[in-house]
Amino acid sequence: MFWPTGPGGPNDKGLGRKHIMESAHASLKRLGTDHIDLYQAHRFDHTVPLEETMTAFADLVRQGKVGYIGVSEWDAEQITRGAALARELKIPFVSNQPQYNMLWRVIEEQVIPTCEREGMSQIVWSPIAQGVLTGKYRPGQAPPEGSRATDEKGGGARTIERFLNDDVLTRVERLRPLAEQAGLSLAQLAVAWVLRNNNVASAIIGASRPEQVRENVDAVGARLDDDLMRAIDEELDGVVERDPGHTRSPIL
User: Fold this and answer.
1) pTM attached to this predicted model
2) Is 156 inside any structural domain?
3) Exposed, middle or buried, 201 (CB in 10 Å: 0-12/13-18/19+)?
4) Is the same domain home to 236 and 154?
5) CATH number for the domain including 23?
6) Residue 107's pLDDT is what?
7) Which 3 state secondary structure label does DSSP give 174?
8) Domain housing 8
9) What is the chain's alpha carbon radius of gyration, rounded to the nearest angstrom?
């Protein structure tokens, strides 16, 4: 809930009451159900009072159309404000959906401690860094045909470009023997690493083939010991992004 929908009118985007209500009802109709378990605000809306957004969500909860409320890519201050209003409105504010992986750890310093304090957990996206942590991209080589890095039209190339430099890709290659020692593929190591964080409830995986789904799911039971975690940090030292300022929302 945030990105533009509909014909492109002024109320077809953002977190204003009209857009929230119309989008929720349209989703219920498309899904053929009478309730949504978890309804999330994707990005923070700087153009709408937060009270308006949270009150609209509260009305959907009280109407029985939504069970729980969450957010995506909100920073620590925004989460704190939202949680305070949720308590005031007596609605369940339970989740944050941020980008998080071995290379992109911007939520660790501020967002995760805030969510722990507010009783929220993470549903993370991009646990394998848009495919970079699978090892499919090699230093000094062109991206494989059909990969996300070649998707100029759909925007995939833009989302992955920050990871596609030889320094990052060389460090990722150094993780391969660590994964093998743990009996895992690189992709499984990446997913298991994300799930090891106590504040992460689940990881959203992307797949183009059934075997990729099976491979990622097998990572759920993997246990990474402290020595392995330290070895991963040593190999990636210098290429990990940790700046909490990178958690920000666009102005539509």
Assistant:
1) 0.90
2) yes
3) middle
4) yes
5) 3.40.50
6) 98
7) helix
8) 1-97
9) 19
